[in-house]
Design a protein that fits this description.
The structure holds two protein chains of two kinds. Helices cover 71% and strands 0% of the residues of chain A. By secondary structure, chain A is mainly α. The radius of gyration of chain A is 20 Å and the shape is globular. Chain A contains twelve helices and no strands. By secondary structure, chain B is mostly helical. Chain B has six helices and no strands. In chain B, α5 packs antiparallel against α6. The chains are: A mainly alpha, B mainly alpha. At the A-B interface, α2, α3, α4, α5 and α6 of A face α1, α2, α3, α5 and α6 of B.
Chain lengths: 246, 117
């Protein structure tokens, strides 16, 4: 529509651009809204780079992971398992379980994207993250005359760019700082900052406590299966407590 | 834990990256792609997914903070556990990643280089 060429190749199936876009200000609004979150994303990305070095990865592999996977928590878990020589199936299975939550985000945001063409939706899906989901759905509910895909791209693409740059800088830092500083301890600290707000009611708290307890005890399990077993136990306990509370 | 990977290791890393990437993209695309063909996401799918974040994050964090040792004192007097407890309190009060990392690393270094040194 109206000669717009800024669709970044995400044209509709029939070659047109979704007609809910009016102005670039929607994209800029997304960029503006995500800026405060960068205070959390930058250290997270740095840690992903540092952890990659610690697991024996080079710059190309570290950046390859950040581009292809683009999901921080699963990257850190995969790096830890790769570094301790866990079997590939365990590395992939663990990362996949961690990213299962994306199905939930996908389901929740899908109605807002239902009018868009298949190619645009495929592009939007690639940059779906916790933060892009949370900010966008909140904004779509509040402000219905926004160009949804532009606002979402403003948020999600900003996160993508910062994530890649942060990974590179993290690799450089990780190569230069002595091991005794224990910089990789920042990994569990990042998870902790995400975990605390995720335990928001009785079933989610029970899920966290059970998963953590089992993971501590199961740390010696063969094939590094402790994390996977702990996580699945936590999910089951959460479901059970939900039923009991009801 | 550290050090360079053997030659087979480089291929291993790329296989892991690509397969995790494919799985993750599949999860992201799932309902965004399907929407229009199915009207509502079944409860059977969304209910367990609610517990994935707390369960997965706790299973990731706690083994890095707690190592079970023969005595309770030895288990508790661990710089990582103390730093984790401080960071957890900060996370609870502020819900900020940056503040949590600063508090945790500062406590870790305090105990590693001063108190337990």
């Amino acid at each position: 529509m109206d000669g717009d060429t800024t669709d970044g190749g995400f044209a509709d199936d029939d070659g047109t651009i979704p007609d809910d876009d009016r102005t670039d200000s929607d994209l800029l609004a997304g960029v503006r809204d995500v800026l405060p979150l960068m205070l959390g994303i930058v250290p997270f990305a740095l840690v992903a780079g540092i952890a990659a070095v610690d697991a024996g990865l080079g710059l190309a592999e570290a950046v390859g992971m950040s581009v292809i996977v683009f999901a921080g928590a699963s990257q850190l878990a995969a790096l830890e398992l790769l570094g301790s020589n866990a079997p590939l199936a365990v590395v992939i299975g663990t990362a996949a379980v961690i990213n299962l939550r994306m199905v939930m985000y996908s389901a929740s945001i899908a109605p807002y994207f239902a009018d868009y063409g298949r190619r645009l939706r495929a592009g939007l899906a690639y940059v779906l993250t916790d933060q892009a989901y949370a900010l966008s759905v909140a904004e779509f509910d509040k402000n219905s005359d926004r160009s949804r895909w532009r606002y979402y791209v403003g948020v999600a693409a900003s996160l993508w760019v910062v994530w890649q740059i942060g990974t590179v800088v993290g690799v450089v830092i990780g190569t230069g700082v002595p091991d005794s500083w224990g910089l990789t301890f920042a990994v569990p600290l990042v998870f902790l900052a995400l975990l605390v707000p995720a335990m928001k009611d009785r079933p989610t708290t029970a899920a966290g406590v059970a998963a953590g307890a089992v993971a501590i005890v199961a740390v010696g399990l063969p094939l590094n299966l402790g994390l996977l077993v702990g996580a699945i136990t936590g999910i089951v306990v959460g479901l059970v407590v939900e039923v009991v509370v009801e | 834990m550290t050090g360079t990977l053997p030659i087979a290791g480089a291929a291993r890393v790329w296989v892991a990256i690509v397969l995790i990437g494919i799985a993750t993209y599949g999860f992201r695309l799932s309902f965004i792609h399907l929407f229009g063909r199915i009207d509502e996401v079944p409860d059977r799918i969304t209910r367990p997914l609610r517990y994935v974040p707390p369960a997965v994050l706790a299973a990731l964090v706690l083994p890095d903070l707690v190592t079970l040792r023969p005595s309770v004192a030895a288990t508790l007097l661990d710089e990582r556990l103390i730093a984790g407890a401080v960071a957890g309190a900060v996370a609870w009060r502020t819900e900020r990643v940056f503040a949590t990392i600063v508090a945790g690393m500062a406590t870790l270094w305090l105990f590693r280089f001063v108190v337990f040194a």
